[in-house]
Amino acid sequence: MGGALAKAGVIGLSVAGLVALGTYAWWTQQPRSEPVQVAVLDTASARPEAVVELAEVLAEAMPDELGAVGSLRSNESVILRPEVSGRISRISFEDGSPVARGAVLIEFDAAVQRAELQQAQANLSLAESNHRRVADLFERRFISQSARDEAASRQEVARAAVQLAQAQLARMRIVAPFAGTVGIRNVSVGDYVKDGEELVNLEDVSVLKLDFRLPEIHHASLRVGQAVEVSSDALPGVTMAATIDAIDPLVDTQGRAVVLRASLPNAGNQLRPGMFARVRVTLDERPAVAVVPEEALMPAAGNRMFVYRVVDGVARRVEVRTGARRDTRVEIVEGLQLGDVVVSAGQLKLRDGDAVRTRTDGDGAVAPAASARAG
């Protein structure tokens, strides 16, 4: 029995030794924390240098401006209508042609009115002759003062009748109230038209009026005489200068907007009334504003923006506050200074602290990126 106990003890010690030996072997095979940290750092530092394009923060003129859309209107516009009914006897213009002020455009049959004028003129001639005879007799004291006054009154009545007949005859002609271009007529010779019926439109397009609206919060910055830059889809790439002529004193309650009217010279009649126009109003001239290409901006959470500023060949993430935009340039209000260099292309894969390189213009070799001043 003693031998059995001794044998069991030896087996127990052997098992314990094996367990201890296995534990030691397992512990010696585990990686240490310090080498792991070094490996991570080595991996990060091994990121290849990114090939990017750079742009310098420059000072450019960027006026404080407001954009709007508006509609073009004729300088003068009227739809010609007759004051009396009648039959058209003559049309003296071609559709879409220019006409001078006072030119006769449409004539109505005026035989009755001309006859009435002739009758009135004859009556006036007779009344004037009677008045002269009565005045001579009164000078020789053959008639009374009342007889002379009665003859003078008849003469004035006859003269008024002539003026009335002339006015009625004039209403049988439609004349151009101003110089302009006639539209497309709706009637022909021989048509019988009623008073007030539309005949043709007349437009003065040598100068156009431009009506547009701006938010009421800018009312204090608006004034008559301000410069306005106008563009139209009908003339791509062309900008025209206009001037604010009037500001409506009544604010539109529907959109809380100020209604403005500008005048735009229309050289060559390139623009037409009714066209859509884009308007840019200059509120303040700012000759030197820090700007970057809009491609350099990257969005961040919370409607914020950032750029990568290059310092000693390393890209540093910098949050910026932007201002006005014009074409492809964006004003930088806060975050950068003039002369700083930012990444304008290739920043999608960048991380803060990455080394960057820029491609040269020559054989395609890659050279270190230009450095901004340290800061």
Helix content: 25-40%
CATH fold type of the domain at 50-61 and 288-368:
conserved putative lor/sdh protein from methanococcus maripaludis s2 fold
Total helix count?
4
What is the top-level CATH class of the domain at 50-61 and 288-368?
Answer: Mainly Beta
Structural class: alpha+beta
**What is the C-alpha radius of gyration, as a whole number of Å?**
46 Å
Secondary-structure arrangement, i.e. CATH architecture of the domain at 50-61 and 288-368: Beta Barrel
Strand order of the largest sheet: 2-15-19-18-17-16
Distance between the termini: 87 Å
The tally of beta strands, per DSSP, is: 22
Described by strand count, sense and barrel closure, the largest sheet is: 6 strands, antiparallel
Poorly predicted spans: 33-45, 361-375
